[in-house]
Specification:
338 residues, alpha/beta, 6-stranded parallel sheet, homodimer, 6-stranded mixed sheet
């Protein structure tokens, strides 16, 4: 490919003139930072290498600890956090866990040994009410700044950024009850996670408020596909026509279980997921789900961690983010006579 | 939860007795390594923390560079490689790229500064025929062992592990021609990637062999959803009833484009994806796709890198892995009269 076509391609992708692309690639002054970034992004999107002189030194390493990558919401968080860290000049080191693999504590130890400037924990052990919090207190004692995403812990006073589970359940129950469902159940993960506790409380409050139901059924299994299938079985046995799930994977498992009983989604049973991601609009049926504002959560967490790293005073509070209900094909009117 | 229930849970999950769980948790001798690992995995799966004394020191850090996490095949590789590295006692540091973010070269520099024992590149710049290979020669000169996954580069003599693109296309064309399709097109990514070159060559050879077609249509856009939609438009205009795609995201884009023209998948047009992953069996229609043996590729790459790190002689060759055609609902008999 000639350098002529390359310039034209990049200019088109970035929405600027080829002259501007030239200026940026040659490191000339007088180009707005936003424009410069658009050109560099276009270069990356089209897969071209950046000229050596445009590479800036990193402001330092930031550790990013996520539980695993099977649930698509975690790669989505990793990608969004990485983008925002890079914008702030930091280099992310992503630590992911797999069963039998490296643990959160081992990663923390390694990150500290390698002098990271700070750490972002996504749905880590901080979100587990039964887990020990010593590691976090040690980090505080060692002066390593960190923030939590999804899952606060009253024993650890650091800034945390989380989806509003209670509000999410209110939105889900309102949607299903407006469709005429009266028997609704929640299928969610392990009870010791703060995500489960928030959802359970929010769900039961909403069921009380909208339908006058006391002790609405909540089945705690685990957040994967099989966990959803198992919980759905118990909720169908309890007569539910609406199932709210703690993750999209659980929702896919629930849909498969509903079908295995010869029932249809949404004609017989409505199912709502939790998280959302690019593939969920292509499922059969397309999944109605509570979307986590992954980018907004990631941006806020990164901005706060950057403040902490630079020593700015930062409130140690929990910031909650509202979910959006994305209505697709897996929810519909309650079956007649249900 | 009492420690009694915890032991029972773990024993059930690991498929061993509670006495064995106790022995492992107390670090007693006389337990087979496989059993010990099963118990630790059960602990992780159930989300319990490992007792301090069971944590072993890492054999060192291994850098793992993946292009991005939006295409689900990359998180799948990251997770599989992480598992195999941890089994070998190494700690993975995952470096992912996002448009406008940290580049492959910046990551390599940081990993070397932090004394990694080796690096695994997944579909990196080595797979781009137009990219400079200086970084790889510097690594060789500095004695940092590394291996490539997906994408070989004749200019860099290191072990590489890749899906057999040529064979994949042979399988796809055979499947579609057996279903009666005669006009088949390939929708794939940028031409400068070795993945595209292998697919293009394999596709055109297979079309020649199975259908006597010279110069079968190949549209090179890019590997994402919109790239698939755009390529599908051109292939439909060329009269194709079968579309083989370079990624599952492209296939989902192609399906959406086919439908936007009022045509049905697979009644009017059959679509085949590439990669596979847990969500692709839940799409509408469930996607017929060429599955990459992610785990086998990852296991071989890790085993070879571990050999290189320990100084064992290792052949600098390219190992190719056969894909599997997973037939689901997006392919069917060619429409009559096509």
């Amino acid at each position: 490919m000639t350098s002529r076509t390359r310039l034209t391609d990049i200019a088109e992708q970035a929405g600027v003139s080829t002259a501007t692309v030239s200026r940026v690639l040659n490191g000339k002054q007088g180009v707005a930072e936003e424009t410069r970034r658009a050109v560099l992004s276009a270069l990356d999107v089209l897969g071209y290498e950046r000229p050596e002189k445009l590479r800036s030194r990193s402001a330092g390493l930031i550790g990013l600890i996520v539980p695993e990558l099977t649930n698509p919401v975690f790669p989505a968080f990793a990608q969004a956090i990485e983008t925002h860290l890079a914008e702030a000049g930091f280099t992310p080191l992503l630590c992911t866990q797999a069963p039998g693999g490296v643990t959160e504590d081992q990663y923390v130890e390694i990150l500290v040994e390698h002098s990271v400037e700070g750490i972002i924990f996504v749905a880590g052990l901080h979100a587990d009410a039964e887990a020990d919090t010593t590691r976090y207190h040690q980090l505080i004692a060692n002066g390593v700044p960190f923030v939590f995403i999804n899952g606060t812990n009253p024993a650890v006073q650091v800034p945390s950024f989380a989806i509003d589970e209670v509000r999410a359940m209110e939105i889900a129950v309102r949607h299903l009850s407006a469709l005429g469902h009266t028997r609704i159940g929640l299928a969610t993960g392990q009870r010791r996670y703060s995500a489960t506790r928030g959802k359970t409380r929010g769900f039961q409050d909403a069921m009380q408020r909208h339908l006058g139901t006391e002790d609405a059924p909540v089945i705690s299994t685990f957040f994967g596909f099989e966990g959803g299938a198992a919980a759905a079985g118990m909720l169908l046995d309890a007569g539910c026509t609406g199932i709210v799930c703690g993750s999209d994977l659980m929702a896919l498992g629930a849909i498969q279980h509903v079908r295995s009983r010869g029932l249809k989604v949404p004609a017989d049973v409505s199912v709502i997921g939790f998280d959302d991601g690019p593939l969920l609009s292509h499922t059969s049926p397309a999944l109605t789900t509570l979307r986590q504002p992954v980018d907004a959560i990631s941006r806020s967490a990164v901005a706060t961690l950057v403040d902490l790293v630079s020593g700015s005073p930062t409130p140690r509070s929990e910031i909650l983010f509202a979910p959006e209900l994305i209505v697709r094909g897996s929810t519909g009117a309650a079956p007649r006579g249900a």
